[in-house]
Amino acid sequence: MVKEINYKKFLLISLGFSVIIFTAGLLLGISLDTTKVNDLVVNINQNELNIESYNIEKEFLATFGGDVCSLSGPRVEALSEEVGKIGRLLDKYETTNLFEENEFNYLKRKYFLLEIKAYSLFTTLKKECNYNYTTILFFYDINEGNSLAQGNVLDALIKIKPNTHIFSFDKSFKDDPTLETLKIHYDINTSPTLIINDKTKQESLINLDDLIELTN
Amino acid sequence: MIELTLWISSFFALMISIFWIQVIYYKENKYNINDKLPKVSILIPAYNEEKNISKSIRSILNLNYPKDKLEIIVINDNSTDNTFKVVKKFKQVILVNNKHKGLGKASALNTGLKYVTGEFFAVLDADSEVHPDSLKRIISYFDDPKTGSVISSIKIRNPQNIYHHIQRLEYILSTFIRKLMSKIDTLHITPGVLSVYRTNLIKKLHGFDENNITEDLEIALRLRANNYSVKMSPYSITYTKVPSNFKELWNQRIRWFRGFIFNNLKYKTMFMNKKYGAMGRFQLPLNALTFITIIVLFVVISYSVITWLYNAFFNLFLLKNNFIYLFNFPSIRELLVNINVKLLFPSSISLLLSYFLLSKAHKSMNEKITINPAILIYFTVYPLLRTLHWATAFYKEVIRNKRKW
């Protein structure tokens, strides 16, 4: 007679081991996510501190005399670059993270506020020091293909025109009143929308050639 | 969506790998070769096999089995070449002509079955050869009266091109899995490359199904449905020829997979049925789950590829010559942030276990793992092709496309 195999026992053992391995992966992933979040928080805090430092230095020079404009250009450019890096890391984090939505929204909010601060600095700098920067506010929708395509066009634009600074905002993000004010101020109803140099509003997807023309 | 699909399929793959690894270490019954050997009839259906059939017949004549207990029956299935003349030269062979035209292999086998006088009969494809000890070893498995059929270990003789080498790997793995299925008594296929049956039982079950494109799967499932086992004799080696080009491989796989879908549905009453033990409650649900996973993966992967292509063309349209600017080399930090450990960790373990199963499969077939283009293709491109085979077979079954051999 053929020996009867207890396949149910085998299945239970397999299920048990699989659950253990997946739980271990999950815990490892969560702990790495926490590390990634902490790293981002450190970056954001550092950036906030840099902005504060810049403001204090500017105030100091204004009070005690000195050339604010020669100091400001490189400092603000560096700030914008750092904010951009945070944005890219946040973007990667968003695509890989399954959980922790609250945490992610908190980081996103901080990032948007940093961008608004950096944008204000750039606008002031352009007015006060006559710098030839192109600033673009980019309102996107994360679930929309045209926004993704517009993001790619903007990535290419930065490489062609390095003096362009882009500040991107999730149009559907509702958790921050300052961002809401920004949307009301520029009357943002659709995505993608671009505000170029605080003057020109572009409310639909635009190709690279036309965008270069608009920014000239 | 993609991530969730991958997550679920990885969990499923991991669980099944662990299951089979446990089966590897399960000690099964030992079967000893009997002194008293029964008479066995070997059925060789042949359609235009003038180039191969001599080798096949010679391998039977060289079997380490009493000659008076061997009967060779070649069924000439309306060949248009010299098959008839070639076979006629072998005096020991009973040569019969299948009068039914275009009814496929099952019809030829049923014709041959009428001439069988052995207690057991074997089916051997005309392009296959057997190892001298194969039959003796197979017969020992019939000690158990509930064993309806016993199959052999199939190897590919002299793989020559990349298609052969890929299929060599596939056969090593599938033969190994069949061996494991045999251990837990869920084997449900009797390939044409030397499978032996109880003659009276198959006659009682009215022979092979002539309306089936995979009669070897159907008869095995029918045996299972009648509570008979299908066993594998792992040391009974047989050698076969396999498709040599894309078209042949494609047609063969579509036929196999359509037959799989059709026959699994035909015997759906066995599904989750307590009466059939591990076969009903484990193997058939596993078959269904594997099939569903493949189809879901096909849909998800196709959707991703189409979306990616659409985006690529759209970006090309928007950026024109500046398209190149989209290719960014991510920093190490960005790469690290991009790693999804929750998926990567179990997938890596699953991959390691798969490698373990692959090495065990090679060991069990006395073969060595060699890193060559075939193994790389087998683990990268081939799964996509297999998914495409499954999807096409599924589509053809859904639209009820005519089944043909």
Architecture overview:
The complex is a heterodimer of chains A (216) and B (405). Chain A is of the alpha+beta class. Chain A folds into two domains: 1-111; 132-216, Glutaredoxin. Chain A has six helices and four strands; from the N terminus they run αααβαβαββα. Chain A has helices spanning 7-64, 68-96, 101-129, 145-160, 177-185, 208-215; strands spanning 134-140, 164-170, 193-196, 200-202. In chain A, strands 2-1-3-4 form a four-stranded mixed β-sheet, with helices on both faces. Chain A is elongated and about 90 Å long. The termini of chain A are far apart. Chain B is α/β, with parallel strands linked by helices and 405 residues long. Chain B folds into two domains: 2-21 and 283-398, no CATH class; 31-268, Spore Coat Polysaccharide Biosynthesis Protein SpsA, Chain A (Alpha-Beta Complex). Chain B is 53% helix and 13% strand. Chain B has 14 helices and eight strands. Chain B has an eight-stranded mixed β-sheet with strand order 3-2-1-4-7-6-8-5, with helices on both faces. In chain B, α2 (53-61) links the parallel β1 and β2. In chain B, α1 packs parallel to α12 (341-364) and α10 packs across α14 (382-398). The two termini of chain B are 38 Å apart. The model of chain B has no long low-confidence stretch (mean pLDDT 91). Classes of the chains: A alpha+beta (216), B alpha/beta (405). Chains A and B meet through α1, α2 and α4 of A and α1, α10, α11 and α12 of B.
What labels describe this entry?
heterodimer, A: alpha+beta, Glutaredoxin, 2 domains, four-stranded mixed sheet, 6 helices, elongated, B: 405 residues, alpha/beta, Spore Coat Polysaccharide Biosynthesis Protein SpsA, Chain A, eight-stranded mixed sheet, globular
Outline the low-pLDDT stretches of chain B: none
CATH hierarchy: architecture of the largest domain in chain B: Alpha-Beta Complex
Radius of gyration of chain A: 23 Å
Given the C-alpha coordinates, what overall shape of chain A results?
Answer: elongated
N-to-C series of helices and strands of chain B? HEHEHEHEEHEHEHHEHHHHHH
CATH domain class name of the largest domain in chain B: Alpha Beta
Q: Indicate the low-confidence ranges of chain A by residue numbers.
A: none
In sequence order, what are the helices and strands of chain A, one letter per element? HHHEHEHEEH
Would you report the number of β strands of chain A?
Answer: 4
Largest interface, C-beta within 8 A: A-B, 43 and 47 residues
Assembly classification:
heterodimer
Helix content of chain A: 55-70%
Q: Beta fraction of the residues of chain A? A: 5-15%
Average of per-residue pLDDT values of chain A: 86
